[in-house]
Amino acid sequence: MPEQTTSAAAVLDTEDLRSTIAEILDVDPSEVTDTADFKEDLDVDSLLALEILVTLERKYQVKMEESNLQLMRSFKVVHDLLAEKLAA
Amino acid sequence: MLTSLKGSWCLILGASSGMGRATALAMAKEGANIFGVHFGTAAQQEEADELVAELRATGVQVSFHNCNAASKQTRAELVPVLKELTGPEGVRVLLHSLAFGSLLPFLPQEGQEDVITPRQMDMTVDVMGHSLVYWVRDLYVAGLLPRGAKVFALTSRGDGRVMPSYGAVSAAKSALASHVRQLAVELAPAGVSVNALRAGLTLTPALLRIPGSEGLARYATDSNPHGRLTVPEDVAEAVVMLSATDSSWMTGNVIDVDGGEGLV
Ligand SMILES: NC(=O)c1ccc[n+]([C@@H]2O[C@H](COP(=O)([O-])OP(=O)(O)OC[C@H]3O[C@@H](n4cnc5c(N)ncnc54)[C@H](O)[C@@H]3O)[C@@H](O)[C@H]2O)c1
């Protein structure tokens, strides 16, 4: 796999994001469906949610707020939040 | 014997805020080098960057890391870095000051359906309790806890009292007190002391996250015999003072640092 460069980092590849999150949650990417509820279906706690947030900040060079933790509810919500930050 | 902290290394888990931050500043003032671990988003990173600059200005060495202190991977990455930095001297003082947990009741309440999940319970007890054991072990195995080293863990009155929403943290504090006793005995032959500091109520981000904390703070302000709340600097002072000896005779205790708040 080619190295992630900073300029490439700003591009939001949906499947790459899915694998990134799956890796943090230690599950198969296929389990991270668009709508699977992080807490109910994937057993995500607030520490894992913070891990996701911090990882995304580094990978995509965006700034997240502590309040964005509440938005770590499903892949779709995270994807949309990230897309919004990248567009800003 | 009382010995200077100058040039020694202090490892602080939870270094960016509250008790950890105040201890970093107080230790640096004594000339100790600071290795800090904290975990948060960019906003918290900015606060940490400011702290690092303030610490560096005192002339000591500073190494800060924004990562989850409760993960095995973090320890695997940071222990070799510590070894490199501290050399044969190792870590003179370890302060465990992590505040991260689920503040949810065990049973559903009126208007509050959310209850703690097994995962959240385990996570809370792991971060605020068990992680002490794993850090101490990894440091010990790496030869980084020399004779005279001091381990401190922060606890609260929640170790024996009940507060709504504090159940998982209470469990973590109870586990922590047990770990302090166990580690104190296992580390005694190595001449390393392990103690818990039980701070009084202190206005920090961690306290403000506890539902109903304003009421608790008001009550503690009124009832504390000193007529005020604990400040992080009170805890920092205790850490500096208790670290100033190479004796490990005082070990396995829970030491109140609360101005007498727990007595009344
Ligand atoms: N504030 C009080 O009233 C009070 C009273 C008694 C005891 N304590 C205890 O003191 C300790 C510190 O609390 P505080 O009030 O200073 O909190 P705080 O919120 O001010 O600071 C907590 C620190 O822990 C770090 N942290 C949290 N989770 C982490 C993780 N997984 N990995 C790495 N770093 C992490 C944060 O980045 C921050 O630096 C806690 O054990 C707390 O229970 C607090």
From TrEMBL, chain A:
Identification of the protein by name: Carrier domain-containing protein
InterPro entries (alphabetical): ACP-like_sf, PP-bd_ACP
Regions crossing the membrane: none
UniProt domain Carrier: residue ranges: 11-86
Protein source organism: Streptomyces virginiae
Gene3D superfamilies to which the protein is assigned, alphabetical: ACP-like
